[in-house]
Fold:
Amino acid sequence: MAHTQAGEAATGSGYRSRPRAVLPALCATQITSWGVVYYAFPVLNPTITAGTGWSPLATTAAFSLALVVSGVAGIPIGRMLDARGPRAVMTGGSVLAAVALVAVAGAPNLYAFAAAWVLAGISMAATFYHPAFAALTRWWGEDRIRALTIVTLAGGLASTVFAPLTAVLAEHLSWRATYLVLAAILAVITIPAHAIALKAPWPPAPSPQLAHHAGGAAATARSRPFLLLAAALTLSGFAMYSVVMGLVPLLTERGASTTQAAWALGLGGAGQTLGRTLYATLARGTTVTTRTTALLAAGGATTAALALVPGPLTALTLIAVAAGLIRGNLTLLQATAVTDRWGTTHYGRLSALLGAPATITAALAPFAGAALSGPMGGYPSLFLLLSALSAMAALLALGARPAAQ
Structure:
């Protein structure tokens, strides 16, 4: 009987035995994991290059390699999540993250530095949003959007907390010592939180009949709707991250100071947080295909507006906030993309397959954007190209309608 009730947890709203510690624990660990493993690097990179003589391009390439690795590693990790739950995956990922950061801090040369970031990439796949989303999707069932929203709102605070903390540490310590301190903070917070809070029994997945994909994960992953959706999210992800990385140079080309452009980027982040709070309302009032297409098209529209509106800075900042609002919705759209179409039976594996190409292209976006802006005559032309990619993504999303819809 206990197993039957647990199985209903994945699909029914009547389940009342959700482990209470999971949600606050994942909020704390997402803030810490993202803050230490991801957001500390851009703060420390100028100090790293100055202290080692390594080129900024080389160190950034090592960090981007970690993101590529995380996208690939997420696929086998997704299978483990489906079968065994998040406790071992996320606890092991936290241990690996601490080890990787110690290796980054002690890297004697650029090759060792890059190898340490490969380890960090595996830890990202095991500790960032993907495994947290898998845990909340199975345990929270039909109430998952609320739980996912809370965790992504917490994750949005990672840069707010750890970017300033990293900067303060770097004022008093070397970059190597700063990473050691951050590794200790990460270990103290995330390892016990994952080991203790995630120890509740892992509910069995619902039957394939309930999940609407009796052909299994492999058949779903080869289906036309899945492939079209993966292509749409990949194009959109590339455009979105290129816009984020290109916003400051775009605005400085328009006459803004670096500080003013940075404020516009920061306010766009605030818009992203607001967008996440609105997604539940959007999901209640639209079909999955309609909101996917609409959000991708809206992302392209804001990108085109940034390209075409010459000023003033206030108008461009408002557009940046609107673009951030859409990005916030897209985060939750991707988190729920699999369950909204194919159920929760193979959520870990399918969401990893869906997100892997988008993660890889997001890692390459900063380099691609910088490389294309010159030949295209500046960032406004680049943003027009990116808006066209978003429009293409919206069209592909129209064809990703699940058979049951």
Q: What stands out?
A: The two ends are 32 Å apart (CA to CA).
